[in-house]
Design a protein that fits this description.
This protein is α/β, with parallel strands linked by helices. It has helices at about 20-40, 50-65, 75-100, 135-145, 170-180, 210-220, 255-260, 270-280, 295-300; strands spanning about 5-10, 40-45, 105-110, 115, 130-135, 150, 155-160, 170, 185, 195-200, 200-205, 225-230, 235-240, 245-250, 250, 290-295, 305-310. About 40% of the residues lie in helices and about 25% in strands. The strands form four sheets. The chain has an eight-stranded mixed β-sheet with strand order 3-9-2-1-12-16-17-15, sandwiched between helices. Strands 8-4-10-11 form a four-stranded mixed β-sheet. This is Carbamate kinase.
Length: about 300
């Protein structure tokens, strides 16, 4: 098997929805990642943070309601907190799994800041769902207080925040150096901490970047061969959950663009994954993206399952 440089973007099911679920889920996640390390691939791991950043923001808001002396915690800081505690669990699960298989490789989490454009139209039009799912009635209570909420891909209602596109990654040289030294890197967690450039200063932005887009940017900047997006489906489908549903093993860039126009991929769930996959696959010759289930990552990279976009 040809050794590849891979960015693995972990979806919600790789982390669970709360602290306890996360502790359990990352053990399985680590096994799937170490399977790829064992085959000699270089891996960088990125992950989502929708449920986690929503939980942190809610916790911080209720803290300052009772103890206002702490001051409001900006959303960018909540993203940084989510990177920290998810990275902590993930890097320890990876460390343990590597030791079990007698593989000597340091693992570290790089607190990653991602530059966004302050003129990005996304700041005027929040679209990124975060936090837990609510019923319509619960959502109405929040909406009455002026909180922006949407129905999230048929799964319930969630708060929404702005989600600008990633422009650049501040710590990219650190990530490259660690990778070139043969280490495993967790980076760009939760889409990265969104920051805006103000002269020598980086100012946190009130946003949550989509992890699939941040992963595509990361993969391009480290010249990865492959972007693997691990989620809750083994393959991508057209006519998903409708008559004529068809699961795809290969998806050309042109077909992906046509299917996006025809509305086959749900916004907020599969659509950003296909957009990110297409962006990466068309960024240079021989690059491809793979979308599959967490536990099928090894089979997917061997060409046995998943949807390959190239
Ligand atoms: N065309 C499609 N093909 C396959 N899955 C789709 C499609 N459209 C929407 N989905 C849904 O998108 C989900 C993945 O999005 P999501 O759960 O938001 O991702 P994440 O794993 O990053 O948390 C799948 O589990 C599936 O239910
Ligand atoms: N930041 C982000 O895209 O998180 P989710 O994948 O959990 O939505």
């Amino acid at each position: 098997m040809v050794k590849k440089r891979i960015v693995i973007a972990l979806g919600g099911n790789a982390l669970g929805k709360n602290l306890h679920e996360q502790m359990l889920a990352v053990r399985e996640t680590a096994k799937a990642i170490v399977d790829l390390v064992e085959e000699g691939h270089e891996v960088v791991i990125s992950h989502g943070n929708g449920p986690q950043v929503g939980m942190i923001q809610k916790a911080m808001d209720s803290l300052i309601k009772n103890e206002p002396q702490y001051g409001k915690v900006p959303l960018s800081v909540c993203v940084a907190m989510s990177q920290g505690y998810i990275g902590y669990d993930l890097q320890n699960a990876l460390r343990e799994t590597l030791l079990e298989r007698s593989i000597v490789k340091p693992v570290s989490t790089v607190i990653t800041q991602v530059i966004v454009d302050e003129k990005d139209k996304a700041f005027e039009n929040p679209t990124k769902p975060i936090g837990s799912f609510m019923t319509k009635e619960e959502a109405q209570v929040l909406m009455d207080k002026g909180v922006k909420v949407i129905e999230d891909a048929g799964r319930g209602y969630r708060r929404i925040v702005a989600s600008p596109k990633p422009v650049d990654i501040v710590e990219i040289d650190t990530i490259r150096t660690l990778l070139d030294a043969g280490q495993i890197v967790i980076a760009g967690g939760g889409g990265g901490i969104p920051v805006m450039v103000r002269g020598n200063r980086l100012k946190g932005a009130k946003a949550v970047i989509d992890k699939d887009f941040a992963s595509s940017t990361l993969a391009q900047l480290i010249d990865a061969d492959c972007l693997i997006i691990l989620t809750a489906v083994e393959k991508v489908a057209i006519h998903f959950r409708k008559p004529g549903e068809r699961w795809l093993s290969d998806l050309s860039i042109n077909d992906a663009k046509a299917y996006m126009k025809e509305g086959h991929f749900a916004p907020g769930s599969m659509l950003p994954k296909i957009e990110a996959a297409v962006e990466f696959a068309e960024s240079a010759k021989d690059r491809f993206a793979l979308i599959t289930l967490l536990e099928k990552a090894k089979e997917g990279i061997a060409g046995k399952t998943g949807t390959v976009i190239k």
